[in-house]
Structure formats: C-alpha cells, structure tokens
Design brief:
Elements lengths: L5 E7 L23 H13 L4 E5 L13 H6 L12 H6 L5 E7 L5 H14 L4 E6 L4 H6 L8 H21 L6 E4 L4 E3 L7 E4 L4 E4 L12 E4 L4 H10 L2 E4 L4 H17 L8 E10 L3 H12 L4 H12 L21 H7 L4 H7 L7 E5 L1 H15 L3 E5 L5 H16 L12 H6 L18
Parallel strand pairs: 1-2, 1-13, 2-3, 3-4, 4-9, 9-10, 10-11, 11-12, 11-13
Antiparallel strand pairs: 5-6, 7-8
The structure holds flavin mononucleotide.
Flavin mononucleotide (FMN) binds next to strand 3, helix 7 and helix 11.
Amino acid sequence: MPREILLNAFNMNCVAHQSSGLWRHPRDQSREYTSLKHWQDLAQTLERGLFDGLFLADVSGVYDVYDGSPEAAIRAGMQIPTNDPFSIVPVMAASTEHLAFGITGSIPYEPPYAFARRMSTLDHLTVGRVAWNVVTGYLDSAAKGVGKLQQTEHDTRYDIAADYMELVYKLWEGSWEDDAVIYDRISGVFAEPDKVHEIVHEGKYFNLRAIHLCEPSVQRTPVIFQAGGSVKGQAFAARHAECVFIGAGNIAAAKKTVKSLREQAVAAGRQKDDLKIFALTCIVVDETDLNAKKKLEEYTSYGLSEGSLALMSGWTGIDLSKFGLDERAENLSSQALQSALKSLGSRTVRDWADFLAVGGGATIISGSPITVVDQMAQWLEEADIDGFNVAYTVLPECFENIVEMVVPEMQARGLYKTEYAEGSMRQKLFGRGDRLNADHPAAAFRRG
Ligand SMILES: Cc1cc2nc3c(=O)[nH]c(=O)nc-3n(C[C@H](O)[C@H](O)[C@H](O)COP(=O)(O)O)c2cc1C
C-alpha cells in the first residue's frame, strides 16, 4: 500500500503571503483577508479537498532590511499589513468539522503563561484541531516592537526556546490531572484542589510559579510544528516537533534533510515516524501541461521584484539593495534565518527577484494533474517526506484547482484519503490517540 500524501495549505493573515505582488492578479481575492467570510470560505474549500490543515504563518515585525527601510515592503504589500493569526481560527473551526489549524506563535514575542492559555482555549473550542508552529523570529524590527534594540543572537534564541517549551509543557501536561474536574452539583465541588498543581519553573530564561488557568483540553499540548533549518534548528525540531516543514529546493536536498531529522529524532529517544515531514511547494495545475505552463507564466507576470527582494533581505538579514542585480550575495553572516542565508549565494539578486514571485521560493510543481501527482509521488518515495505545505499563487483559485484536479488524481492512485479519520488533529495524523506520545519530552511532566 502506498503511503497517503498529507496536505497543508500555507497562508498568512495578509495579502499574497509568499507570492510577492500576486494580489494584483485580477482573480486574486487575498485582499479580502480582513473579512470573516473570506476565511470561512477558504476553510470550507480546503475541507472539501480533505486538506489536513491550514497552516498560518506569522511575523511580528516589518521587512525593513532592504535599503534599510520598510518602504519597499509597504509598497508591495509584502506581509504588511498583517493581522493576527489566532483570531481567525474559531470562525474557521465553526465552519468546518475536520480541518486542523497550525498557528505560528513566536517565542520572543509571546509571554509563555498567557500564550499557553490562548492555545488551550483554542484547543477546547476546536475540539483538538490546533497545532503550534514554534518559531524563534528573524527580524530586528520585531524585537524593536517589544522594546529591544535588536533580536537575540541566533543560537541563543533556540536555547531560550528550549526553556520556553519546558515551561509550557509543564502548564499543559502537568498542572491539571485528567480527573481534576468532577463538576459535582450535589457536593458543590467543581474541581478537586489536590489534583490541580502549581507549576514551579526556574529556568535560565523564564521563571514561573502558577497554576495553568485552563482545564485539560482534548490534546493538552497542541500538535507541535517547527521549521528550523540550521544545525540548532534541526536539533530542536528532532526533539520537539511532531510536524516539520522543510524548505528544500530539490528531492536530493530534501532527502538529506529528512534523513538527518529522522536520525536525530531517534538519537533523542523518539521513533523516526514520530516526525511528519512536509516539503514547501507551490502547485500550479491545469488540464494540460501546456496550459499549466501558460498559467505559471501569467502568474509570474504579476510578481513585484521589489517585494521579493524585501522578503529575501528580511529572511536573510542581508540588504540586497547593496548588490548589483547580476551579483551574488555570498559568504555572509547575519542573525536571521540561517537556512535562507545559506541558499542566498546560489542565485543572482535578479534571479531571486524573479524566482520568489510565485510561491516565495517554494519548489514549484506544475503541469497537468497526472504530471503534478507523478512529481508529488516521486517526492514522497525518494525524499521520504510525508506531505506538502502548499504556498498559494492566486487565492482561492490555487487551492480550488488543487481540490478539483489534484485531489481526484491522488485518490485514483490510492495516494490520498477519501474521507477524514475521526478525532483530534493528533489522532488523525498519527492514529495513536489525542495526547502526545510517551517518548516525547513533554510526557515527562504529566501528573496523576
Ligand atoms: C515553510 C516555513 C515556514 C516558516 N514560517 C515562519 C513563520 O511563519 N514565522 C516565522 O517567524 N518564521 C517562519 N519560518 C522560519 C522558521 O520557523 C525558523 O524560525 C527559521 O527557519 C530559523 O531557523 P533556522 O535559522 O534554524 O533556519 C518558516 C520556515 C519555513 C521553512
């Protein structure tokens, strides 16, 4: 039996997300991001296509590295303006039954006690359909938004994240025992105090002495997503993540990353299948290969180079306005995304401006449904990934095309589910219950 492909839609509460300038396309509706109906309709489209999740990216600052100014990003609408990702989840959950929601929460900008409560609340409201994409940030502008001069050094951010994880795991897993709430109308006892524990955390970066404010939710700890690409980032993912997003440009590179991640997970005392790995892709499909090629060309014509370069400068921490269009920015260092920085010298500045316009650097899989599914199957088989995190081109057309053309082709080959499994997000993904596996580090903090 072939393994079933997992699918996440990749989006952000803004226009065009990764596809710089494609909000200008006549059929694009991402401009409606401020409306509830926009998100409800999108969630229902994804659920119609049995997508596993909608993954919401987020950044807490503006892209102001390019030319030392936010002007290019503001002009191009490159992830600015951007609304909060948490607030749109309940309305989408109310309009769907199975679709899960991955929400990006940034360690440096989310105080852990309040954050743990917000996640538990969403896990309750969605009946266990939430995941947390753990990120450590990459923009100095975001650090300035919380009163710092600049962001903390790259590797230290992961040390801080490790301390943060321990704290929130303790709150989610260890504060309330499963049978703490008895809700006894006769005796007048709602919850038994000896089964509700104060968490004492004295870490290098965080201290806390408090009871978690929420009773246990379906999953307790939300499904943990992570996308670190550096040495530190991968080690963090192998220890904590249940789902990992990788941004590998080709199958050979992805294969190497996946092998390393699975090996590190095993070294950390977990199983290699405890990680579901998603490759970042952008799918452009049409009835024939030729039509898909024309569609991709047409999409590309709406790209805004300046927005792409503002994005890449923010990701890498390198001001690309300082380089000639035919130059390569090579062998540089910064405190931003190390994976993006590593790839920077592989193209000229002009190539980055063109390449990022559709999908923001995601691997583009384009063609007829047969061609697209051939390639997806090849990725799964050769790179040992579990699925795809799909960046969009034109919204909602991009996802509608996938639902109408790619999903039936995958199903016909036995590569995709024909109905959702029951249960929480974690149960659907791993088939092993709602709660974290016993070999996950969070399990050590369980009580009772
Ligand atoms: C597919 C993908 C999506 C990401 N989404 C976000 C995001 O929404 N917000 C964010 O701050 N970082 C995001 N990142 C960045 C990573 O989570 C991580 O913080 C970054 O790769 C830094 O780690 P590194 O230096 O270890 O690569 C994303 C990375 C990838 C590959």
